[in-house]
UniProtKB/TrEMBL annotation:
Highest taxon of source: Eukaryota
A Pfam family of this chain: Ank_2
Protein name: Ankyrin repeat protein
Mapped ANK repeat ranges: 313-345, 418-450, 451-483, 484-517, 518-550
Record has Acetylation as a keyword: no
Length: 654
């Protein structure tokens, strides 16, 4: 086989396709067929990208002219050349009349358009099939010649954080998958073109308790996605539709998740899930916060939990693992089948949270690099709709923020796709210089994102005291709550051990006993995260330890559930109410029994349990004795002896 014939075919197709695209672009002015012509343009452009990679591989074809894949490649090129020529002729002789509007111009025969739709659809499908076959063929050629320039091209184009070897044991398949990804990388991943924008819809808050919560998000859907508005944009987003529905709590404790993805390198993919909603006392959530992947594995093996389980907010264990930066647990959960794209009730995905952490510089270098490797970039950056100001702050652009603000401040409060303004990102990164520049340029401090988080909340998370103080000076609402009802103080209590941050907020008159939508106070948050210094500071500042949340549980419950020994000791010393009964009829003794721990029981030996009912039955008809050792594997006789001694002390008998 003459290798020059491949080069000639590639050049011929590229030349013909260029002329075809120009014709289609003019035809696109026909208002009733914008979507159809746009789809054809994209299909031809994608074909040209595949052809460019064929040209890169040409010198290897010269050395292996008689290999089966090479012969097949030649045949596919001939077929593609014929299809593009057919489309070009159809445009010129059937759809257009040259010389009517202007020399060489094109005008559509509007009344006969319906007759041409079926023909164009057939041509488009033929080009698509050829493109997919060519992609597969060049992938196979790549696998045959692993040191080829195409492999180097793939390595350059594909994000270095992708590791396809973990997904397959076939070298050929690895290369084909990587090649498919390479063809999608036609513009920068943070391209702000409108065609990448993700459109979302959800039920208003007022009706969610009655009819449930519906979340719909889509991108790249033909006929719905806006046309490109960036001259450098070279691609459309992969078409995807995500639908998540949360049944109303009065009807069913379930959520329904459906994801439909249409890719250029495969057929439509539909994923339908209906995960269980499990309550807060399930060990899975506590173990996820501390990264105990070994214990979680035992729960999975015993069918006591699964990687698909979600809490009342639709968050899975992977959401927790990402939020708490547990790298090993993230890998374990994904290996067990956890979905990185599972949306919670606010449309938040684990992959979104991971990339927010990366871009916000909220983690160590080890965590940052691990998250980039584990989660890749997907379409996260592609759908963010970052402005130039966003990109400068996030170091995605070399243009100085100060230069941009000198030129114009018109976009200083324009949000990205998540509702985050440049000020929000500057606060999140703890960038005091960028934050001051934005504030001096008119940035508004009270703009909340889709999760209800204000720049102040993000600044508190960053731990930068200067940023927090500066935002308060510029009028930030210190009482603002996110979608979970949490204030900046509650966020600060779980973000880190930082009493200086708490002091700033309390000195500026934040409500120390404010509750979120679960009824939890800042003290509960600090205790749940075992931030002892924060909890003790709050208690000294006047926090009420007896405020019960919606589950009827107080800070004592949190200290028991999360083994916060020092906090428990302080609460016992302060003689908090230990006779409280939660919404499921459980006493403190039920909690102590189910989370049995000798050190904890020793702390309670001298505690005042008031009028606690030792024989109290919970909603499941179980006494505290029945709960003994439910969450632990230990010597039952020893547990009975120690726990029995505590009960005897409470009864006043020894």
């Amino acid at each position: 086989m003459d290798p020059l014939s491949i080069t000639a075919s590639v050049l011929a197709i590229i030349g013909a396709s260029e002329k075809t695209v120009k014709g289609l672009a003019k035809l696109r002015s026909f208002k009733h067929a914008v979507a159809e012509f746009s789809a054809l343009i994209n299909e031809v452009q994608d074909l040209r990208l595949v052809l460019a990679n064929v040209a890169v591989q040409n010198h290897q074809l010269e050395q292996n002219p008689d290999d089966g894949p090479v012969l097949a490649l030649r045949s596919l090129l001939k077929r593609a050349e014929k299809q593009v020529q057919e489309l070009e002729e159809y445009i010129q002789y059937d759809l257009s009349k040259p010389g009517i509007d202007e020399p060489g111009g094109i005008r559509v025969k509007r009344r006969s358009w319906v007759l041409h739709q079926e023909k164009l659809a057939t041509i488009q499908q033929g080009i698509k099939t050829s493109r997919l076959n060519l992609a597969t063929a060049i992938g196979i050629v790549t696998s045959l010649f692993p040191n080829s320039s195409t492999s180097r091209f793939i390595d350059h184009r594909v994000s270095p954080t992708r590791h396809y070897e973990t997904q397959t044991g076939s070298t050929g398949t690895i290369q084909i998958k990587a090649q498919a990804q390479a063809f999608r990388r036609n513009c920068k991943p943070w391209c702000s073109c409108a065609c990448h924008k993700k459109t979302t819809f959800r039920y208003p808050k007022l009706v969610r308790n009655v009819i449930g919560n519906l979340f719909v998000g889509y991108t790249g859907m033909p006929g719905l996605t806006p046309s490109c508005n960036e001259t450098k944009c070279q691609q459309r987003s992969a078409s995807s539709l995500e639908v998540t529905y949360y049944f109303p709590s009065w009807l069913l404790s379930r959520m329904l998740s459906m994801t439909l993805t249409l890719t250029a390198f495969g057929g439509p993919e539909l994923i339908l899930r209906m995960p269980r909603m499990v309550n807060w006392t399930t060990p899975l959530w506590r173990l996820s916060t501390v990264g105990e992947f070994g214990q979680i594995g035992k729960l999975f093996s015993a069918a006591k939990a699964s990687p698909y389980d979600v809490n009342a907010y639709g968050q899975s264990a992977l959401h927790y693992a990402v939020g708490y930066r547990h790298i090993t647990l993230c890998r374990f959960l994904i290996g067990e089948g956890a979905d990185v794209n599972l949306q919670d009730e606010n449309g938040r995905k684990p992959i979104d949270s991971a990339w927010d952490i990366v871009l916000s510089r909220k983690a160590t270098r080890t965590v940052t690099e691990a998250f980039m490797q584990i989660f890749g970039e997907g379409e996260y950056l592609e759908t963010r709709q970052f402005t130039l100001l966003h990109k400068s702050i996030l170091e995605l652009s070399r243009t100085s923020l100060f230069t941009l603000l000198e030129d114009s401040t018109a976009n200083v409060n324009v949000p990205d796709a998540s509702g985050r303004t440049p000020l929000s990102w500057a606060a999140s990164r703890g960038d005091i210089h960028a934050l001051e520049a934005l504030l001096n340029s008119g940035a508004v401090t009270r703009v909340a994102d889709m999760e209800g988080s204000t720049p102040l909340i993000y600044a508190v998370e960053s731990g930068e005291h200067q940023c927090v103080s500066k935002l308060i000076d510029y009028g930030a609402d210190i009482s603002a709550m996110n979608v979970f009802g949490a204030t900046a103080l509650q966020i600060a209590c779980k973000a880190s051990e930082d009493t200086a941050m708490l002091k700033i907020l309390i000195d500026n008159h934040t409500d120390i006993n404010a509750i979120d939508f679960d009824g939890d106070t800042a003290l509960n948050s600090a205790t749940r995260h075992r931030h002892t210094e924060n909890a003790l500071y709050l208690l000294e500042a006047g926090a009420d330890p007896n405020i019960a949340n919606v589950a009827g549980e107080t800070a004592v419950h949190m200290a028991i559930y999360y083994y916060a020994y020092d906090i428990l000791a302080e609460l016992v010393h302060r003689k908090v109410n230990l006779a409280v009964v939660n919404s499921r009829g459980c006493t403190i003794l039920h909690a102590v029994a189910s989370h049995y721990d000798t050190k904890m029981i020793a702390m309670l030996e001298e505690a005042d349990f008031g009028d606690i009912n030792i024989a109290k039955l919970n909603a499941d008809g179980r006494t505290c004795w029945d709960e003994l050792g439910r969450e632990q594997e230990a010597n039952m006789d020893e547990m009975k002896r120690v726990f029995g001694s505590l009960l005897n002390r409470i009864r006043g008998t020894y």
